[in-house]
Amino acid sequence: MDDLAADPSHPRYESLLKRHILENAAKKGMLAGSALIAHGRGEAYDYLIGEQTIETAMNATKHALYQLKMAKHPVISVNGNTVALVGEDLMKLASLLDCPIEVNIFYRTPERMSALLNHLDEIKQRLDLDVEVLGASPDTRIPGLEGPRAKCCQSGIFLSDVILVPLEDGDRCEALVAMGKTVIVVDLNPLSRSSKMGSITIVDEISRVAKNLISMFGEQEEILEHPFDNEKNLRRSLNHINQSLTEASNFPV
Ligand code: ATP
Ligand code: MG
């Protein structure tokens, strides 16, 4: 990053870098006003899980990858923060999965949509990826939702059987589940509505998740315990937070 004041040796370099990326994305018109607040909430939970991929998150990531690979019509749905932070890795993942990526934002304006689509298009050209980028011309709606946030593409989100929706709003997540889809949520907050609604919730930072999905893609699949119990996995994630707080505060257990 050219104009980032922090040095890579700074203990919080990774975190500062992400903030810087989001600041730049905001300047380019890619983010809604509340985007930085949403990121801050995520950062707070990341502190609580120790800024690492915890065991329950890895378990959920493995199940998520399995579902995406087995899907007939997988799709990756992205919002502003996701495009800014991991647009490149999710384009690579879409290429590996041979699936479309659809820009689907909560506060839809033509300016934000074109800023996000342009950003993904630049990645597509630069990396020479054969990925279909959807979202410019939504032609249908997610049932049960009002207003512009219901808009989506028939050949992408609407048709999909398995959908990866990082940092999704709880309401929309619920509507996607009601459509019968397997909904893979990435959310650092295990208590959010999205986390509770999702079919598979990965309680981890989106940059780490994207890297894990890509690096595990070509690996031999492990035998996984089916069916995935999301509620149990979320309770185990909360338990991890509980335990680390207990240890840090030196309470007798
Ligand atoms: P819900 O409607 O699901 O209850 P919310 O209102 O709590 O959601 P939103 O504003 O919909 O929150 O979305 C932001 C969510 O994304 C937060 O729960 C936050 O923890 C999570 N989040 C933010 N940044 C990241 C990130 N980089 N990686 C993973 N999760 C993130
Ligand atoms: Mg949410």
Secondary structure tally: strands: 8
Percentage of residues in helical conformation: 40-55%
What fraction of the residues are assigned to beta strands by DSSP? 5-15%
Gyration radius, in Å = 18 Å
| Mean pLDDT across every amino acid position | 95
Based on Cα principal axes, name the global outline. Answer: globular
Low-pLDDT runs: none
Which small molecules are bound?
Answer: adenosine-5'-triphosphate, magnesium ion
Going across the major beta sheet, what is the strand order? 3-2-1-6-7-8
> How far is it from the N-terminal to the C-terminal residue, by CA?
45 Å
Largest sheet descriptor: 6 strands, parallel
Protein structure class: alpha/beta
Please give the count of helices: 10
Q: Care to describe what's here?
A:
The chain has helices at residues 13-27, 35-49, 55-70, 80-97, 110-127, 154-158, 170-178, 193-197, 206-217, 230-249, and strands spanning 74-78, 101-103, 133-134, 140-141, 151-152, 162-166, 182-186, 200-202. Helix content is 53%, strand content 11%. 39% of the residues are buried. The strands form 2 sheets. The chain has a 6-stranded parallel sheet, with helices on both faces. It is an alpha/beta fold and 253 residues long. The chain is globular. Bound molecules: adenosine-5'-triphosphate (ATP) and magnesium ion. The site of magnesium ion has 6 residues, from loops.
